[in-house]
Amino acid sequence: MGIDKQTLLDDSINALKIISNSKITKTINLADIAFITPFLITPITAFIKSEGTDSKIIEPSNGDVRTYLKTIHFPNCIDAHRLDNLNCRTYLPLYQFSRGDKEYDKIISKIFGKIISFYGLESNKNIMVLFLSELIDNIREHSKSELNFIYSQKYTGMLAISIVDSGISIPSSYKSKNFKFEDDIEALKYALEGKSTKSEDERGTGIPNTVNLVCKGLKGGLILISKGVGFYKANEKELMFFKLRDMSFKGTIVNILFEIPKKQINYTKYINI
Amino acid sequence: MKTTFFIGSVARIISTRETARELFKKLMKEKVTTLDFKDVDMISRSFAHEWISLEKEHNYEFRKIGMNKDVSFMFEYAEKKPSHNILKESGYKEISLNKLMSMA
What we know:
Mean pLDDT of chain B: 91
Number of helices of chain A: 8
Strand content of chain A: 15-25%
Number of strands of chain A: 9
Distance between the termini of chain A: 39 Å
Structural class of chain A: alpha+beta
Largest interface: A-B, 62 and 43 residues
Shape of chain A: globular
Oligomer: heterodimer
Radius of gyration of chain A: 18 Å
């Protein structure tokens, strides 16, 4: 089954709707879910593990979907020691990582290595490592989050990746460093303009580089949601900022979708120098 | 006393600033002078930038050998200040959630 940028948008927002409802009903209602993507299930997993530990999960009524959720280890995620034995070629199961993990870089290196080899991205490993490492390092440096998740799935020619943290969110990170703004969208603009909460001039390139590498380099789509705001960009089109109205997410979600490239891409064209 | 440290013993892909900070502190204390990047496939910009910043801060520069072209490029790139503004280059607007859902 294929997915497209509409799925990226729909599932990212549907995850928040399910989470929002569960805050009232104390149930994670997956009964009507007919198809699982990383964009939907990773934020839900993060919510269950961080805030929703007392929520009851209503499983999908579709048996195939229930089986798939077991396959990807929802909601408990796989352990680090099982990473070495993974041999599935179309998905990387839900993996939970913490800033305090021993040999953090070794584990992250294994995950990146799996993503690159499973999905035939050896000729483009640089572009993959560049943006994945920026996202992972941002979690470590800024989010103050101990509950972080990554999950990826290949579809026909397409790769979907979701990286989610349960931290303080981008707007709160800026506010904690005395950046002033009335509207949380301004915080996302700071992040995209490369205004770092750290003092050095050469910092702050993580999010803008990730957006350029994914959207221009890989011609993909990216949606980032943090607290009650977000942005979406696809290909060379303009960035769209949005507010979540009566929903919010504790932490930051980055959902990415792109067509697996057939040729090597010169990543140096898409980074900010 | 070992003066060369094989960075590949940490990981083949080195991503985080935290790793740079911990490793730098350890290697400086052990008076290591050379980093061998044999078996390192790639480093992130974050790691490279942090490493260079620490070398400047502590006035302690390591000799770097065995770097492939991507590792070497990342150390050069990490020192450069960003020159582009993605918001100006791509343009942006604020839209409602309903409009967003019909955008793709």
